[in-house]
Amino acid sequence: MTSHKEFLYRKIYNDLIRDISKGIYSPEKRLPSEKELAKIYSVSRITSKKALELLEEKGYITRMPGRGSFVIHRSSPSDNQEVANSFQKGKTQLIGMIIEDFAENFGTMIIAGAEQGCRERGYSLVLKRSNGSQKQEGKAIEELLKLGVEGILIIPVHGDNYSPQILRLTVEAFPFVLIDRELKGIPASYVGTDNITSARELMNLLFELGHRHICFVSPSEANTSTIQDRKEGFLKSFAEHKVLVDESSFLYNLSSTLPGRPKNEEIQKDIETVKKYYRGHPKTTAFFAVEYNIALIILKAICEMDKKVPDNCAIVCFDSPPNFVGRYIFTHIQQDETEIGLKSVDLLFKRMKGEKIEKCYLPGKLIRGKST
Which are the contacts of 237, defined by CB distance < 8 A and separation ≥ 6? Predict the structure, then answer.
């Protein structure tokens, strides 16, 4: 894996080649010393020394003990082309981004916001998908580092364990920002929605409407900070309204919305799971779904049981696709995806400058739909 130190010495190397090609450092002109470069780039002298050694190895400079490093005159066409190519490489400024997959209901506008933020700073965004696999996530990190990205935005994969590559980014102090899902115990900048407060808003609405028997529904792999925070908001609202909640109010074993799962078979299985729960808990009058596609599964199950939403049962959730004609609109929390994308780029560039780790929790907006 490319380390942060290697990235920094390569940046110094490419910057100096660019300046040589532009004539800022003409033949026989002295380059900044190891000490001066270390100060300019806020790196160790070992890093700046490595950049100068590589320039000498490639024949761009000569190093004279006690005097410094001086540009060598190069007139060969092939040499000039090498300088031009290196300059072009140095000129390409890249930011990497890793997502699980493209989803209509959540994530697309985060990408748009991140791309806008990068473009405004003169950078290009390189996008990779993990498809819900930590192995693919690690591979994507490796590929982005080989491309020479200066920082990475990551929507991490669901799972009980953390990707080893993310842990290495942390250890090597490579600039990255987590989006939507925090990794507890990992010192990293983070941008996402205030899920606890948003979940409480949804629950407060249900309580105001008179609901008391409410089921919390999430994917089978529920060990992510996002889902845990939504569960915490769910439970806090029960406590604030002095209503008891028991473990039978939680439905965790849905799987069709997870990336990489065979959809049709899994969707029908999840619909049957919701039906079974509803039959076994006839007092249930509302479902709290942690995401839009789970809300769709609940809606389908209730309709197949000849019940009506919201007459017999209410549904609330997080996120919703754009409102096209004929699409069912749930009462939901709308996350400010564009702002999440823009803010994540802002925090990433702060990390690239060596500034402190920051965490940003943006407010969600409660949207009333047809399901309550």
Answer: 199, 200, 203, 204, 207
Phi, psi of 202 (to 5 degrees): -60, -45
Q: Is the pLDDT of residue 62 over 60?
A: yes
Pairing of strands 314-318, 331-334: parallel
Q: How far is CA 261 from CA 130, 133, 219, 234, 319, in A?
A: 13, 11, 12, 27, 21
Query: Angle 222-228-233 (CA atoms, 0-180°, nearest 5)?
Result: 135
Share of the chain above pLDDT 70, in %: 88
Distance CA 178, CA 187 (A): 10
pLDDT (mean) for 25-46: 87
**Phi, psi torsion values for 160, nearest 5 degrees:** -80, -30
- DSSP code for 174: -
ω into 32 cis (within 30 of 0): no
Give Cα separations from 135 to 41, 139, 141, 159, 349 (angstroms): 34, 6, 10, 12, 27
261: number of CA atoms within 13 Å, CB side?
A: 17
For 112, the token pair is 């748009």
Q: Which residues contact 178 (CB under 8 A, 6 or more apart)?
A: 154, 155, 156, 186, 188, 189, 190, 191
* Range of weakest confidence among 121-125, 286-290, 321-325, 344-348: 321-325
Q: What's the half-sphere exposure (Cβ side, CA atoms, 13 Å) at 153?
A: 34
Render pLDDT for 74-128 as a digit per residue (tens, 0 to 9): 544 344 444 444 444 445 689 999 998 877 667 889 999 999 999 998 899 999 9
For the four alpha carbons of 43, 49, 53 and 59, in that order, the dihedral sign comes to positive
The pTM is what? 0.74
- Tokens 């939504």, residue located: 230
